[in-house]
Write a structure and sequence with these properties.
Rossmann fold; homodimer; seven-stranded mixed sheet; about 525 residues; about 40% helix; 3 domains; alpha/beta; six-stranded parallel sheet
Chain lengths: ~525, ~525
């Protein structure tokens, strides 16, 4: 159709498609009705409806991590964006690219200060790298293409495009063809020889993050470790980590501050490759926030936006490690089959035994999951996603996004009960889209992590009212009813045998299912 | 205890209590643990736990409307605030006062850009009238007192106080005594005689809002209407409207734009008293956004922040209406008892018949509820709360706040299924606090309002994909299981008889209960 007959909304959809954006996680309202209409008659965009915008933005985060390209979200005005803000925070910290399309009142309506009027740019800015309000139907196509470009700046950015409804309904839309997408920046070659020299034994650490955690790049890191004797670790939170039998295993810098300090203490020299220097998640009275030893020599070879594959390859060359067989390759070894009542150790073993080949594991297990990493080391090959922004409620939505990005792979979502309640509406979207997701809810019926944090901040002996404010057992959540109410089949288990069967059935079902693990 | 032994968190709790803030709706995290500890050992603050911050902020909105003074919220860093943002938007538009306490990292930690670090002031500003970050433990008491003062500026404001965790844990806190609270501004006396002259018959409208909608003020408005022959109306969305038998009935400016234009067309002169001049909720192509007739003479006697009682009393004096018996007093008349399958009309009749004396009705019924106002005119005396900011998900949380503010009154929450899903976690808090709330879910299994909006924006014949994006029936939500999963007893009804019994039982139960009304 000739451009002149297109309205702004239609130019938006054509432009997103031309630039590789094929999925829209959405909860639209009146001001987005022209996009809904455009999505109706322009084929190619998969629209996934969410019952709350935090589901939509979290799904876009998970999608980017697995697809390597952004999804769009379609959000209703400032409040719709606001509901999605905390998972955009998580996406931003994960380096995920997201293209948010936010409807705005027609330009003429904004001055009237209607009930839904708000400062949308102001709401967007704290979580966005790029914010723009289109000023005409003719500008929408160009702005949309540039928003995709902004979202693809390595490792991935949050782009928020605000579209007044008259820019959507007015004629004169111009669809934009594919525009050039940015590539990662070069790594810091000036640091290469110094980095190679620094890696001279067990007192040095090669700390990996971001794109360094692919199967191939980890193999290169394993060669460097074997050749130089250096240690390798990853950050605590990783957007995407490839793991399992036959791959180079990399442990994470621990979350609990005292253990992290202990683990990092030996390292006099640290080379950062896609990772940031380790700091505490929180500050605590009388404890350091910088987790590396005092006076450690920290060298950044490649920051978050750099080409991590090139940096690792060059480092392998500079250390003469290219042909060295990699260290830390995981043997295909599953834990013994546990029995009896489920505890964190048996849980880790059962999960490790169940992970299907090429599964995607979305991990928001908080306290319960600390035993999972060593246990799953030798499991079948899988991909592990962490919450990188610390705002709970990322897990269920990210599982949606991962499943939409990789329909041929199975997704396991491991989540605490407190976290899962934040975006519990996700279950309905899983049912609606019949996504191949097995959700494990770890029902410890408390914000368990905060009980430890009370002690960490110096509250040694919390009273009953403090304990009550961290407890979720009054009433206990019934996850089986919760899940079924949204169309997702569910079971509750307390014994190892039951969990083993539930995992087997759930993973074989091909659709969404939920297992409440009572701890 | 001497001030010098107090930490900042303790000075906060003492100061809030001294300034009349007695309730805290909360979801705390690590950075708020010292407040949790302070709440533990300082008696007087009722802490109400929410599983998502939108529940906490919406509850604070409902609380203010019924208590006439602010509650506090306690939110975890930027993302916790972000989750509460859309209901703060609603509270802001309702003129509700809220004191948000948001934890921040310790000052020394912010520069390290930890995973949860964000621009908290930036997130707060679009929905807040007042934002401050305390700079020391010694400042917390003073800042807290001023935040209450800011929240009490008429009709009520959003105050956000950000407390770095070291200001909470450091000693040197100074509790602040009660400080002077602001009173409403005087109304615009210079407009009084002109306003009195303008009210000269059926071509003039006295448009009421805010504080003009109390029982006494409505009675005064009824006297003015009787004396002058003017019409009275209220805004479409009212933060709090007193209704029922023996009170002066005031109709609302309709939501659907064509009907609103029709209703407002006769009025050549409009006097605003606590209300704003009527505008459309949204802009639509080819339709006006200003709903009053072209050239109408609009006069503001009292804006949102003014003393509405004084303005009405003065206007009654100036029109000689002080002793005139009021017009539009509702007779105590209930609709006939309907039978058969429930439809919007029979639903309205059954609700009208069931409303208990002095009940609080929280209304987020969107499309289903348009028949409720005339039907409930002669019901037992009750208070009606609307969503004033248009961001759905206000209803269940506001019902929590109303029930906490008025434990001796019964609360009915009327909500669409789409709206209720936004903050469905509210049900758990209702169960935990055993609140006397009867929730009616109108399960039309779609974003019904948006189907009309597609037409309004000019999409006459939506295709199957557009319809699907507005449908909630794939799968249908099972509200009975949903509610029970969070500890709230529930029934599903399709027939009038069943709804009548369910309402009777639910309202008599004294605790939370839910009725799924299948439409």
């Amino acid at each position: 159709m000739p451009d002149t007959e297109m309205n702004g909304a239609e130019s938006l959809v054509h432009t997103l498609l031309a630039n590789g954006v094929e999925v829209c996680f959405t909860n639209p309202g009146t001001s987005e009705m022209h996009f809904v209409a455009a999505l109706d008659h322009i084929p190619g965009m998969r629209s996934v409806l969410a019952l709350q915008e935090g589901v939509a933005t979290g799904a876009a985060d998970g999608y980017y991590r697995m697809a390597g390209k952004p999804a769009s979200t379609l959000l209703h005005l400032g409040p719709g964006l606001a509901n999605g803000l905390s998972n955009l925070h998580n996406a931003k910290k994960a380096g995920s690219g997201v293209v948010n399309i936010v409807g705005e009142h027609a330009s003429t309506h904004i001055a009237l200060d209607a009930p839904l009027t708000s400062d949308i740019e102001g709401i967007a800015r704290p979580v966005s790298h790029w914010v723009r309000t289109s000023d005409s139907a003719a500008a929408v196509g160009r702005d949309a293409a540039q928003s995709v470009q902004a979202a693809m700046v390595a490792p991935g950015q949050i782009a928020t495009l605000i579209l007044p409804s008259d820019t959507a309904w007015n004629p004169g839309g111009v669809a934009q063809d594919a525009i050039e997408l940015p590539t990662p920046a070069p790594f810091d070659e000036s640091q290469l020889s110094q980095a190679a020299q620094a890696l001279d034994g067990p007192e040095t650490l090669l700390l990996l993050g971001g794109g360094a955690l692919t199967e191939n790049n980890l193999e290169t890191a394993g060669r460097i470790a074997a050749k130089t004797g250096c240690k390798i670790l990853s950050e605590w939170s990783n957007a995407r980590l490839e793991r399992g039998a036959g791959r180079v295993f990399v442990d994470r810098v621990p979350y609990p501050i005292d253990i992290a300090l202990e683990v990092l203490k030996p390292f006099k020299r640290i080379v950062l490759l896609g990772a940031r220097a380790p700091i505490g998640f929180f500050a605590y009275p009388e404890k350091p926030a910088i987790l590396t030893r005092v006076g450690a020599d920290i060298l950044t070879l490649a920051d978050a936006g750099a080409d991590h594959a090139a940096a690792l390859s060059a480092l392998a060359g500079a250390t003469g490690a290219r042909e060295t067989p990699p260290a830390h390759v995981s043997d295909p070894m599953l834990p013994d089959r546990p029995q009896g009542r489920i505890d964190p150790e048996s849980l880790a073993a059962l999960i490790a035994r169940a992970i299907p080949e090429q599964a995607i594991v979305v991990d928001e297990s908080v306290t319960t999951g600390r035993a999972f990493a060593p246990a799953t080391k030798g499991a079948r090959k899988h991909t592990w996603l962490n919450n990188c922004g610390g705002s709970i409620g990322y897990g269920l939505p990210a599982a949606i996004g991962a499943a939409v990005a990789c329909p041929e792979r199975k997704v396991m979502c491991l989540t605490g009960d407190g976290s899962a309640m934040y975006t519990v509406q996700s279950l309905w979207t899983m049912a609606r889209e019949n996504l191949d997701v097995t959700v494990l809810i770890f029902a410890n019926r408390s914000y368990q992590i905060l009980r430890g944090e009370l002690t960490n901040v110096g509250v040694g002996n919390p009273g009953p009212r403090a304990i009550d404010m961290l407890s979720l057992d009054r009433p206990a959540l019934d996850w089986v009813q919760m899940s079924r109410s949204m169309g997702v089949e569910a079971v509750r288990v307390t014994e190892c045998d039951a969990l083993e069967s539930a995992l087997e059935d759930g993973l074989a079902s091909g659709g969404p299912n939920l297992i409440e693990v009572v701890l």
